[in-house]
Amino acid sequence: MAVALKRSLAVLVKSLGGPKWWQQASRSVSISASLSRVESPPARADATFKVTMLPGDGVGPELMTAVKDVFKAGDVPVEFDEFHLSEVQNMASEDKLEELLSSMKNNKVAIKGKIHTPMEFKGELASYEMRLRRKLDLFANVVHVNSLPGYSTRHNNLDLVIIREQTEGEYSSLEHESVPGVIECLKIITRAKSRRIAKFAFDYATKKGRNKVTAVHKANIMKLGDGLFLQCCAEVAQLYPKIKYENIIIDNCCMQLVQNPYQFDVLVMPNLYGNIIDNLAAGLVGGAGVVPGESYSAEYAVFETGARHPFAQAVGRNIANPTAMLLSAANMLRHLNLEYHSHMVSDAVKRVIKQGKVRTRDLGGYCTTGDFVHAVVENLRHRPNY
Amino acid sequence: VALRKTFNNMQTVTLIPGDGIGPEISNAVMKIFEAANAPIEWEERNVTAIKGPGGKWMIPPDAKESMDRNKIGLKGPLKTPIAAGHPSMNLLLRKTFDLYANVRPCVSIEGYKTPYTDVNLVTIRENTEGEYSGIEHLIVDGVVQSIKLITEQASERIAEYAFEYARNNQRASVTAVHKANIMRMSDGLFLRKCREAAEKHKDVKFTEMYLDTVCLNMVQDPTQFDVLVMPNLYGDILSDLCAGLIGGLGVTPSGNIGANGVAIFESVHGTAPDIAGKDFANPTALLLSAVMMLRHMGLHSHGKKIETACFDTIRDKKVLTKDLGGNSKCSEFTEAICQKVRDMD
C-alpha cells in the first residue's frame, strides 16, 4: 500500500509542478526578458504553450476576452485552442465533447468558464459539466480565498484554501421515482475517492506550507456515508504528523465562518458541502468575481473561477468583474512554470484593486469590464524586477 | 383549576426544562413571564425516552398526553447519551408529534454587535425527510450509499406553511432555496410544489434561488432576504449560517410546527454541561423562543413587552452574561429583565 501511495504521490507532485521539459523553455524566456527589459520588448519565446480554452456560458466569453487581451499585452507565450460547448445555447453534442476531451488530453492544461446546466429535465440526469469532470477524472477542486488588499470587507486578511471532492457524493446524478410522488436521490461515498481527496489535501498543505487541515462533514446524521469520509481523512492524517488535523460539522462550520473565519486554514470536504462553503467563503472576501479556483486530476489541470456561476444577467452589459479569471490565469501560468509572467499578471491586477480608482460594479465602482482590463494592461507596463 | 382557567383566560403550556442548563433557563423564563403577568400556566414534564410495549422507544405517556392536550410546548436543550440505544431525543419528539416545519427568525440584536447589522429574515426548513431520512446502506466494502427522499406530500405541506407564515406575519416575499440544476428530479419536485403554492397565494412574492447563490449573497448582503423555504439539509446549514450572522445559537429562537396544531418552541443550543448549575447560563435563546410562542398564540402585546425588555437590557450593557460580553450571573440578568418589564406597566 505504501508503494501505491508513493506512486500516486509522485504523479500528484508531477501534476502540481508541471512536466519537466516545460521548465527548459520557460527558463530561457525569463532570462531574455530580464536582459532586454530596458531597450526592446521581450524576445518571443521559441516554445509557446498550448492551452485549451472553453468560454462556456453567461459572462464566460467576456472574461476569456479579458484574459486574452491581458496576455497579448503582456506578451505571454500561451496559445489558446478554443472550443464552444454550451447546453443552453444548443451547441452541445457528443462529438463536440469528444473533440474537447482529445484537445485537453493533448494540452493537459485548460482554462474554462462555467457551462450552465439548464433546469429542464432533458432526459439526461448528468450535465455536460459533470460529464467533463468525470471523463477527465477531475477529482479535486481547489479554491483560494484570499482577501484583496485595498478592498475591505467585514472580514479582512483572510487566507483560506477550500478543497472539495467533485466527482461523487450528492452529485452522482442517480435519481429515480420509486412510487409516484416519492423521489429518491442517491449520495454515494467511496473509500477510494475519499482517501484520494484526503491525500490530495494533505499533500497540498505540505507543499504550500500550511499548518492545519479541517475535514467538514455531517457524520452525526449520515453516520455511514460521512462517517466513511471522516474515517478516511483520519487515516490519511496519521501519515502526516506535521500537519494538524481537525474535523467540524458543516452547520457549525458555516456559523464559525461568519463569526470567526481566522480559525480555519485548509478545509477538505465532499461535494455538496464544498459547493456551499466555496460560495460562502467567496462572499466573505468580495463575491464570485474575485475568487480564483482550479480543478486537478492526476494528469490534468483546469483553471476557472472559484464560485462557478454563469451570471447570465450580465451578458452583453460589460459589467462582469474579470479579477477572478485573471488571477486564475496567473495561477495557470505558475502551473506552466512561467513564474515571471504569472507574477506580472497577478501583480498588475492586485495593483489596480489596491489603487481603488477603477472598480467594477460588484466591488462598488462604476467601471466596465473593458475599463478594468485597460487598467490592468496599463499596470503591466510597470513590470516588477524579478 | 378548570374554573380558574376560564375565569382568568389562562392558557396551559407544556414546559420541558431539559438537561444541563435547561432547568436554570426555564426558571428564568418562568420568572420573567410572571413579572409580565402573561396568562400562561406551566405544566412541567420530563421526556427521557422509555421503552414502550413492543420494544419501541417512545417518550413517556404523560408527556405525550400533556402535549396533545395543550398543543403548545416550550423546550430547553436535551442531551442524547451516547450508546443509549435509542435515537436522539429531538428525533423522537419530531416523529411523535410529526413536527414538519422548523422556523427560525433571525433578527439582529441591537445591543449585541456582529459584523452583520440589519439582518431580518426567517428560515423555514422541512424537518421530516430529505437527506436526513437516515436510510443508508453499505453496498460493497468501501462504498456507501445514502438516500435522500423527497415526497410530494411533504413538499406541498411545507410550501403551504411557508406562505401561510408569510401572510400571517406580514412578510413580503418567500424564496425557495434548491439545487434543482444538479438534483433535477428531487429538488425539481420540491420546486414545483413551491411554485404551485405560490400560485395559490398571489399576495406574497415568490422567487427561487440556487443554494450556492444564496450562500454567496447572504454573507455579502443579508438584507435582501425575507422568508426562505427549503428541504432538510439546506435548511439545517442555512439556519445555522443565519444564526451565526446575528450572534450564534445563544441568542437564536426556534419553533417547530407539527400536524394537528401542535407547536413546540425551543432553544437550539446545547446543554452546556460544563456550566450547568453555576448560574452562568444565558437565557436569551429560550426567552426569545418563548416570545415566539406568545406571538403564535396571539398574545402579541405580552410578547412585545418581554422582547423589548430583553433587547433593552442587552442594549444597556450594564448586566450581561459571560457569553454576551459581561460578567453577571444568570439570575442578575433575569432580574434586570424582570425590572424592565415591571417598569413598563
From TrEMBL, chain A:
Q: Which organism is it from?
A: Gouania willdenowi
Name any Gene Ontology BP term: tricarboxylic acid cycle
Q: What does this protein do?
A: Plays a structural role to facilitate the assembly and ensure the full activity of the enzyme catalyzing the decarboxylation of isocitrate (ICT) into alpha-ketoglutarate. The heterodimer composed of the alpha (IDH3A) and beta (IDH3B) subunits and the heterodimer composed of the alpha (IDH3A) and gamma (IDH3G) subunits, have considerable basal activity but the full activity of the heterotetramer (containing two subunits of IDH3A, one of IDH3B and one of IDH3G) requires the assembly and cooperative function of both heterodimers.
From the broadest rank down, the organism's phylogenetic lineage runs: Eukaryota, Metazoa, Chordata, Craniata, Vertebrata
Question: What's in the keyword line of the UniProt record?
Answer: Mitochondrion, Transit peptide, Tricarboxylic acid cycle
* Main localization category: mitochondrion
Write down any Gene Ontology CC term.
mitochondrion
**In the UniProt record, what gene is named as encoding this protein?**
idh3b
Subcellular location field: Mitochondrion
Q: Which NCBIfam families match?
A: mito_nad_idh
What is the similarity comment for this entry?
Belongs to the isocitrate and isopropylmalate dehydrogenases family.
Q: What is the name of the protein in this document? A: Isocitrate dehydrogenase [NAD] subunit, mitochondrial
Q: Which residues form the Isopropylmalate dehydrogenase-like domain?
A: 50-376
GO molecular function list: magnesium ion binding; NAD binding; oxidoreductase activity, acting on the CH-OH group of donors, NAD or NADP as acceptor
Q: Which residues cross the membrane?
A: none
Q: Name one Pfam family in it.
A: Iso_dh
Q: SUPFAM superfamilies, alphabetically?
A: Isocitrate/Isopropylmalate dehydrogenase-like
Per UniProt, subunit arrangement is:
Heterooligomer of subunits alpha (IDH3A), beta (IDH3B), and gamma (IDH3G) in the apparent ratio of 2:1:1. The heterodimer containing one IDH3A and one IDH3B subunit and the heterodimer containing one IDH3A and one IDH3G subunit assemble into a heterotetramer (which contains two subunits of IDH3A, one of IDH3B and one of IDH3G) and further into the heterooctamer.
From TrEMBL, chain B:
Entry-linked SMART domains: Iso_dh
Q: Which reactions does this protein catalyse?
A: D-threo-isocitrate + NAD(+) = 2-oxoglutarate + CO2 + NADH
Localization in the cell = Mitochondrion
InterPro entries of this UniProt entry? IsoCit/isopropylmalate_DH_CS, Isocitrate_DH_NAD, IsoPropMal-DH-like_dom
Record keywords, A-Z: Magnesium, Metal-binding, Mitochondrion, NAD, Oxidoreductase, Transit peptide, Tricarboxylic acid cycle
Cofactor field: Mg(2+); Mn(2+)
Protein's UniProt keywords contain Oxidoreductase: yes
Q: Name its GO BP terms in alphabetical order.
A: isocitrate metabolic process; tricarboxylic acid cycle
Q: Which GO terms describe its cellular component?
A: mitochondrion
Q: Which residues form the Isopropylmalate dehydrogenase-like domain?
A: 12-337
MF annotations from Gene Ontology? isocitrate dehydrogenase (NAD+) activity; magnesium ion binding; NAD binding
Q: Which SUPFAM superfamilies does this entry report, sorted A to Z?
A: Isocitrate/Isopropylmalate dehydrogenase-like (SSF53659)
Q: Which PANTHER family match?
A: DECARBOXYLATING DEHYDROGENASES-ISOCITRATE, ISOPROPYLMALATE, TARTRATE, ISOCITRATE DEHYDROGENASE [NAD] SUBUNIT ALPHA, MITOCHONDRIAL
> What family does the Swiss-Prot or TrEMBL record give for this protein?
Belongs to the isocitrate and isopropylmalate dehydrogenases family.
Q: What does this protein do?
A: Catalytic subunit of the enzyme which catalyzes the decarboxylation of isocitrate (ICT) into alpha-ketoglutarate. The heterodimer composed of the alpha (IDH3A) and beta (IDH3B) subunits and the heterodimer composed of the alpha (IDH3A) and gamma (IDH3G) subunits, have considerable basal activity but the full activity of the heterotetramer (containing two subunits of IDH3A, one of IDH3B and one of IDH3G) requires the assembly and cooperative function of both heterodimers.
- Subunit and partners: Heterooligomer of subunits alpha (IDH3A), beta (IDH3B), and gamma (IDH3G) in the apparent ratio of 2:1:1. The heterodimer containing one IDH3A and one IDH3B subunit and the heterodimer containing one IDH3A and one IDH3G subunit assemble into a heterotetramer (which contains two subunits of IDH3A, one of IDH3B and one of IDH3G) and further into the heterooctamer.
Protein name in UniProt: Isocitrate dehydrogenase [NAD] subunit, mitochondrial
Q: Which organism is it from?
A: Gouania willdenowi
The gene name on file is idh3a
